[in-house]
């Protein structure tokens, strides 16, 4: 199964710090780990999960073995990075941030009594796309509860999958 994995600029896992073998004209080396959801195994995301896991660099990852789906992620005993998704770059990160800022403005205008006045934080830029997505999703949650949060995250993930031309 192919999925996606966000990493830091140097190819490390954002939460674990694990240094992934990077692809260099061919897929990277296989990584193996005992599967224990949220503790062990090779974790990745599907296109519909992208907005929950944003980081600086995005790779397509090939998973092998029994793949378990749980919430906003998938986990397998083996995985290797196949290719970097070059479309996730400074320009697309900024576009995503601006889309989320515009969406937060729409949400604020639709329910000012629930959300209050909205102004993007001073740090709104290509360096903060995860924060911009989170803010818009939390505003949707304030208006429509957890279903609003989930729907906003799905909307963001759909935008990412379409913009980045992901399956």
For the structure shown, list the relevant keywords:
single chain, 167 residues, alpha+beta, 2 domains, four-stranded antiparallel β-sheet, three-stranded antiparallel β-sheet, 7 strands, 20% strand, elongated
Give structural notes.
There is one protein chain. The termini are close together. The protein is of the alpha+beta class and 167 residues long. It has helices at residues 90-110, 112-115, 129-144, 146-163; strands at 2-7, 31-32, 42-44, 57-64, 68-70, 73-76, 78-84. The radius of gyration is 17 Å and the shape is elongated. Helix 1 (90-110) packs parallel to helix 3 (129-144) and helix 3 runs antiparallel to helix 4.
- The share of residues in extended strands comes to 15-25%
> Mean of residue pLDDT?
92
- Computed CA radius of gyration, to the nearest angstrom: 17 Å
Count up the domains.
2
Helix fraction, binned, reads 25-40%
Number of strands: 7
Task: Give the count of helical stretches.
Answer: 4
SSE pattern, N- to C-terminal: EEEEEEEHHHH
User: What oligomeric state do these chains adopt?
Assistant: single chain
Overall SS class:
alpha+beta
Distance between the termini: 12 Å
The main sheet orders its strands as 1-4-7-2
Low-confidence stretches: none
Largest sheet: 4 strands, antiparallel
Shape verdict: elongated
Topology overview:
Blueprint: E1 2-7, E2 31-32, E3 42-44, E4 57-64, E5 68-70, E6 73-76, E7 78-84, H1 90-110, H2 112-115, H3 129-144, H4 146-163
Helix pairs in contact: 1-3, 3-4
Summary, kept brief:
With 167 residues, this protein is of the alpha+beta class. The protein contains four helices and seven strands; from the N terminus they run E-E-E-E-E-E-E-H-H-H-H.
